[in-house]
């Protein structure tokens, strides 16, 4: 459960800004913005989606910094009333829609901050997923660094040894004398190298990054979408709370992620697939060894693509911004405050939207 996971982490004071009120666009505005988002996806060649805890709340897993988030309530000495176990949680409509968008080649990569394993359960292939903060359903060998899927969530967090021998010899690899450790990061741990590299390279070559259910407060993961902007791509943020990078976004949607993606899928004419246990890697791990290691060939290929597109290209330093009527957030002395000089859709996106409303 999220509460147990949060309690297992080392003490840490700087958990970001907590409990900022949620805000909702009108249905008419949501429909308008979904048309724009669908149009952006259709016209983009390389789309990266960045996911946070907000995409898993409809599965019964509470977020951390929302009005009823784990750390928000912890500050008041409370716990969330809804808190399903990681073992029982099933992928949400958003998880399944993202998997479908990947299969349809509309989304090229997903960068996740979540440790709940729902992308894994959805059947999303490893080559399309970076898990920056780890996964409750993954063990990693301390020597060969290969990763393996578990059928049940780990009992520890913070890369602690389980004592189980490495399974590489049984998974078609060379025998290894290493021991398996849980794959969930604590505050002091560095992000997994290949996951971070793949995230940086995909974000840099993307012409569109979409952030779903995250306030983008934790770095470096929260700053990865800016790589898209720096290299001339567009940034879309869908979240109920204002985020750290709203003022850099081309489009901001304040509404439920499940509903937004359902509308976008309908506009794109793509049917959503249902959760299927036969594609759930944690179910497959009950009867076989499932290797979850990022393929080295994929890393090398992505590095070549990154160097081909981005080497020698000067990053943008100045962003064109326009005002919007609703409120934005600025950080002052560690607190997020309202700012009337907030932003919404940049002028170039408004121009693209005009034919849609004609």
The low-confidence parts are: 318-344, 347-358
Helix content: 25-40%
Main beta-sheet strand count, sense and barrel state: 6 strands, parallel
Q: How many extended strands?
A: 12
Give the ordered list of helices and strands: HHEHHEHEEEEEHEHEEHHHEEH
Q: Distance N terminus to C terminus?
A: 48 Å
Number of helices: 11
Characteristic terms for this protein:
6-stranded parallel sheet, 11 helices, 358 residues
Describe the structure.
The protein has 358 residues and is of the alpha/beta class. The chain is built from 11 helices and 12 strands. The chain has helices at residues 2-8, 27-43, 70-74, 93-103, 118-122, 193-205, 225-230, 257-268, 281-284, 296-310, 347-357; strands at residues 47-51, 109-112, 129-131, 134-141, 147-149, 161-165, 179-184, 208-212, 234-238, 251-253, 328-332, 335-339. The strands form 3 sheets. Strands 3-2-1-8-9-10 form a 6-stranded parallel beta sheet, with helices on both faces. A 4-stranded antiparallel beta sheet has the order 5-4-7-6, with no helix packed on it. Strands 11-12 form a two-stranded antiparallel ribbon. Helix 4 (93-103) runs parallel beside helix 8 (257-268). The protein is globular and about 55 Å long. Residues 318-344 and 347-358 have low confidence and may be disordered.
Set out the fold topology.
Elements: H1 2-8, H2 27-43, E1 47-51, H3 70-74, H4 93-103, E2 109-112, H5 118-122, E3 129-131, E4 134-141, E5 147-149, E6 161-165, E7 179-184, H6 193-205, E8 208-212, H7 225-230, E9 234-238, E10 251-253, H8 257-268, H9 281-284, H10 296-310, E11 328-332, E12 335-339, H11 347-357
Parallel strand pairs: 1-2, 1-8, 2-3, 8-9, 9-10
Antiparallel strand pairs: 4-5, 4-7, 6-7, 11-12
Helix pairs in contact: 2-8, 4-8, 6-10
């Amino acid at each position: 459960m999220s509460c147990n996971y949060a309690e297992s982490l080392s003490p840490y004071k700087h958990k970001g800004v907590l409990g900022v009120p949620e805000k909702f666009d009108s249905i008419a505005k949501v429909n308008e913005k979904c048309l724009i988002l669908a149009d952006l996806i259709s016209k983009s060649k390389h789309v990266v989606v960045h996911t946070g805890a907000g995409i898993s709340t409809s599965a019964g897993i509470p977020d951390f910094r929302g009005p009823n988030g784990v750390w928000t309530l912890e500050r008041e000495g409370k716990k969330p009333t809804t808190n399903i176990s990681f073992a029982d949680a099933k992928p949400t409509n958003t998880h399944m829609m993202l998997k479908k968008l990947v299969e349809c080649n509309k989304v090229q990569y997903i960068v996740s901050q979540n440790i709940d394993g729902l992308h894994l359960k959805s059947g999303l292939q490893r080559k399309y997923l970076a898990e920056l903060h780890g996964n409750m359903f993954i063990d990693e060998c301390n020597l060969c660094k290969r990763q393996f899927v578990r059928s049940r969530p780990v009992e520890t967090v913070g890369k602690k040894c389980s004592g189980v021998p490495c399974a590489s010899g049984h998974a078609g690899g060379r025998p290894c004398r290493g021991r398996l450790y849980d794959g969930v990061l604590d505050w002091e741990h560095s992000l997994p190298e290949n996951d971070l590299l793949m995230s940086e390279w995909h974000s840099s070559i993307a012409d569109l990054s979409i952030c779903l259910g995250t306030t983008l407060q934790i770095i470096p993961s929260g700053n990865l979408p800016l790589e898209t902007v720096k290299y001339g791509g567009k940034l879309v943020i869908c979240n109920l709370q204002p985020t750290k990078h709203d003022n850099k976004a081309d489009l901001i949607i304040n509404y439920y992620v499940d509903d937004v993606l359902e509308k976008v899928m309908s506009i794109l004419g793509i049917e959503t697939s249902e959760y299927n246990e036969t594609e759930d890697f944690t179910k497959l791990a009950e009867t076989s060894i499932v290797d979850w290691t990022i393929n080295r060939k994929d890393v090398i290929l992505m590095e070549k693509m990154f160097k081909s597109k981005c080497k020698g290209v000067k990053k943008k330093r100045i962003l064109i911004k326009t005002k919007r009527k609703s409120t934005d957030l600025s950080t002052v002395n560690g607190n997020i405050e309202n700012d009337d000089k907030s932003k919404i859709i940049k002028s170039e996106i408004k121009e693209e939207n005009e034919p849609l409303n004609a």
